[in-house]
Amino acid sequence: MDVANQLVAQGQFTVVKQPLGFIKVLQWIFAIFAFSTCGSYSGMFKMSVECKNRSESDLGIEVEFEYPFRLHQVYFDAPTCKEGKSERLFLVGDYSSSAEFFVTIGVFSFLYSMAALAVYCFMLEKYRENTKGAQIDFVVTAVFAFMWLVSSCAWAKGLSDVKTNTDPEKVIKFISACEEQENRCREVYDPKVSGLNTSVAFGFINLILWIGNLWFVFKETGWMAAFAGTYVPSQEKQPAPDSFGQGGYGQQDPYAGSQGGYQPDYGQQGGYNEEGGYSQGYEQQPTSYSNQM
Predict the structure, then answer these.
(1) What is the fold of 18-221?
(2) What is the pLDDT of residue 81?
(3) Where is composition skewed (Low complexity) in this entry (predicted)?
(4) What is the pTM of this model?
């Protein structure tokens, strides 16, 4: 208990209220819903075959199937309505690959979300100081978003095929006794696949959550600041001088030209005389300091 109390005391659980941690909690929860609704499924449908000879009829043929939906291994016995014999028939299709892939992605998403939450709660300062951890988190999040897209689409297609091949109306056509008009075949009970439909919905919800989480993880990587720091608008770029002869100290003074600049005439008459007065080359000379005195 002391160790647990210390961990709780050191934890920064306020991150759960922030988008970075809150979305991870949602990912953790919906990953459980996704793989549990698919991996724990078991269904059953029921048919009846009523022969001309009622003693040979079977009014309760039950066919059970479950995850991982290897339907080609599911069989049932149906009467032939001939001399009391029966035949063994198998369902069609193997959809274990798409179902198992979907469940595997859900389990690994659950584990990674739990590990990421532990890092956010107990090592958030190190996570934000060292951007390498956030960058790894971003890459893994992007991979899981892509995997959720692939697995959800694959499982949606697989589920459609499972529902088609477990439809009693279609399975009845495989029974040879039902081909004769004197025998009567009908479905009694359809399989309930609402749980499987929910698993597909949870898969696409996880896809949305993982794609949305990319933005909040990206802000922790430091890449945005790096991009903002190196960006220079094109109109502000100035070419650097190649040498001192171009744009350097050897360049002529623009004010020394013959146009538009002030050109002092160092040859004009004027200056301080010996008596302390100042004389210029004008017709009217200023009064010297001695005359003012």
Answers:
(1) Butyryl-CoA Dehydrogenase, subunit A; domain 3 (1.20.140)
(2) 87
(3) 275-285
(4) 0.71
